[in-house]
């Protein structure tokens, strides 16, 4: 996703090699028939084709970072505020590239700068520990005005949580599309103490899916981690331990949801995860290549926990206990 000077040079070398091979092949074939000389123009075309994405990204990163996005990140994203200057610069560049390449479309709702910033942050936080990462297959993010049902309908009240969902990766005719509930996307960053973040949850599914299978095991995990992780999840799902209040029961749906839910804990409440389940934390740290407990320890959280009778931060006008809190107490 991010083009560094090193990756730019590597891309340029590869483009030169490919175009040289095409040009050389055209010249060799022209010894048998001048007809093959028409292949020579393919060499510079191949060079351009191979370089176009990298050059586009470099151009995007050179542009000034929009003040509106900076304000949103600084206000709502604790992860961003915990970064040093170099880390923030890299994060901003990733945001610019992600927003340039991934359409974010509102369905019966507006997509403002804060929403765009929070979607981008959700995508970047899980992969910030990787040098190069591509969310291949993600074509668009759809923002819905509320939670939605299996038929993608948003009609009905929030208390119908057993049939509604806050986010999903599209399947079938919606393959390549991510759907997020706007109020729940916002609430995930506004309420840093609830250990829930639907944006991070859904992008964790994409990280998991990068090897072609959504099985709770992301690609790139070391051999020392794969075995213990598979064994751990197998035991957890088999026994489904009761009374483990620090882990949302939705995690025990299947292997994929276990990984996605634990990802929310890893990035929102790493101190809880490390304290209550140090083995899980260590394995998540290896898979994400980040030590979030240490990294986030010094960040000052500017937002207080939302009280039951306070107005819901999603903007519905209802009390928190009658709106988003109800959804979170009974997760779809």
Can you give keywords for this protein?
single chain; metallopeptidase activity; 6 strands; 14 helices; globular; SEC_C_motif; 52% helix; Collagenase (Catalytic Domain); transmembrane helix; four-stranded mixed sheet; alpha/beta
Annotation field: number of helices: 14
Describe the sheet with the most strands: 4 strands, mixed
Give the spatial strand order of the biggest sheet: 1-2-6-5
* Backbone shape: globular
Assign the CATH class of the largest domain: Alpha Beta
Average pLDDT confidence is: 82
Uncertain segments are: 156-164, 328-332
Quote the beta fraction: 5-15%
In terms of structural class, how would the helical and strand content be classed? alpha/beta
User: How much helix is in the residues?
Assistant: 40-55%
By DSSP, the count of extended strands is: 6
Radius of gyration equals 23 Å
Give the number of domains: 3
- Please name the CATH topology of the largest domain: Collagenase (Catalytic Domain)
The CATH superfamily label of the largest domain reads: Collagenase (Catalytic Domain)
GO cellular component, one term: cytosol
Pfam families: Peptidase_M90, SEC-C
Protein name: Protein MtfA
Keywords: Membrane, Transmembrane, Transmembrane helix
């Amino acid at each position: 996703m991010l083009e560094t000077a090193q990756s730019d040079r590597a891309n340029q070398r590869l483009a030169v090699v490919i175009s040289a091979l095409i040009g050389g092949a055209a010249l060799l074939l022209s010894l048998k028939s001048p007809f093959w000389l028409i292949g020579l123009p393919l060499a510079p075309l191949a060079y351009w084709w191979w370089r176009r994405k990298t050059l586009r990204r470099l151009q995007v990163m050179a542009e000034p970072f929009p003040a509106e996005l900076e304000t949103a990140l600084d206000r709502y994203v604790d992860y961003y505020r915990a970064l040093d200057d170099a880390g923030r610069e890299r994060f901003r560049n990733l945001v610019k590239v992600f927003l340039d390449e991934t359409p974010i479309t509102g369905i019966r709702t507006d997509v403002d700068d804060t929403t765009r910033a929070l979607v981008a942050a959700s995508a970047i936080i899980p992969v910030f520990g990787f040098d190069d990462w591509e969310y291949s297959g993600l074509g668009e993010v759809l923002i819905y005005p509320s939670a939605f049902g299996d038929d993608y309908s948003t009609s009905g009240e929030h208390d119908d949580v057993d049939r509604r969902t806050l986010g999903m990766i599209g399947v079938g005719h919606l393959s390549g599309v991510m759907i997020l509930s706007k109020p729940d996307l916002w609430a995930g960053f506004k309420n840093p103490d609830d250990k829930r973040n639907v944006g991070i949850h859904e992008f964790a599914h994409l990280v998991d899916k990068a090897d072609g299978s959504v099985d709770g095991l992301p690609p790139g995990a070391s051999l020392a981690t794969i075995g213990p992780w598979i064994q751990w999840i197998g035991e957890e799902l088999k026994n489904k331990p009761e009374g483990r209040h620090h882990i949302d029961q939705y995690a025990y749906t299947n292997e994929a949801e276990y990984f996605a839910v634990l990802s929310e804990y890893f990035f929102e409440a790493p101190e809880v995860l490390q304290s209550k389940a140090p083995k899980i934390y260590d394995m998540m740290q290896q898979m994400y290549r980040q030590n979030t407990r240490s990294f986030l320890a010094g960040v000052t959280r500017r937002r207080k926990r939302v009280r039951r009778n306070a107005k819901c931060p999603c903007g519905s006008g209802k009390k928190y206990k009658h709106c988003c809190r109800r959804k979170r107490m009974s997760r779809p």
